[in-house]
Design brief:
The chain is of the alpha+beta class and 192 residues long. It is built from six helices and six strands; from the N terminus they run ααβββαβααββα. The radius of gyration is 19 Å and the shape is globular.
Length: 192
């Protein structure tokens, strides 16, 4: 057996012992396919089980910081409608509850129950975390750095393309059915 073949076999055995790629993406052999913008893991809101955002690679993502007791909380309904309308075409809405603006005081379970019972939220939601300043979770730090805009309030939105590129940032005043937002989403969904 040639030295190169022995090396390849040894590397293959080592890779099987350390499934780094599966941990990063949720899909064996696709670590490179997970864009840097999605290389984050957060606890799922409902049960706090770790979820890799790499599972949304290849989708268009609308990332939103949320709160249960805010003047913009009604946007949950529009976000859920947006998700239902476009999910089969590749859109995912990702909700990140935050108490940064003192309007999300409940536990993760309280937030999950509120979202489901009040607005029928089915889009993926993650555990409560900070979304601005030095204590912001790593995704929101990255989004703010790339767009030059941290959330000014709850229901700030960031659009991420299928390729993982951070496309745009939208203030809380941008409703989920805003025509400019819908055009941007449609454009990203059309990209392959």
């Amino acid at each position: 057996m040639s030295p190169i073949l022995r090396l390849l076999l040894a590397l293959g055995a080592a890779a099987a012992m350390f499934p780094l790629q599966a941990a990063q993406t949720g899909k064996p052999g696709q670590a490179a396919a997970c864009p840097a913008s999605l290389r984050h893991t957060f606890p799922r809101l409902q049960d706090e089980k770790p979820q890799s955002l790499c599972q949304y690679g290849g989708k268009v993502a609308l990332v939103v910081n949320t709160a249960s007791y805010c003047g913009f909380t009604h946007q949950y309904k529009g976000l859920e409608a947006l998700y239902a309308r476009y999910k089969d075409r590749g859109l995912v809405v990702l909700g990140f509850p935050s108490n940064d603006f003192a309007q999300e005081s409940g536990s993760n379970k309280d937030i999950a129950d509120f979202c489901e019972s009040t607005f029928g939220v089915k889009f993926p939601m993650f555990g409560k975390s900070s979304v601005r300043g030095p204590q912001a979770n790593p995704l929101f730090r990255q989004l703010a750095e790339k767009t030059g805009r941290a959330p000014l309030w709850n229901f700030h939105k960031y659009l991420i393309g299928r390729d993982g590129a951070i496309v745009a940032s939208y203030t809380s005043l941008t409703e989920p059915d805003d025509q400019a937002l819908l055009r941007d989403i449609e454009k990203q969904l059309a990209a392959r």
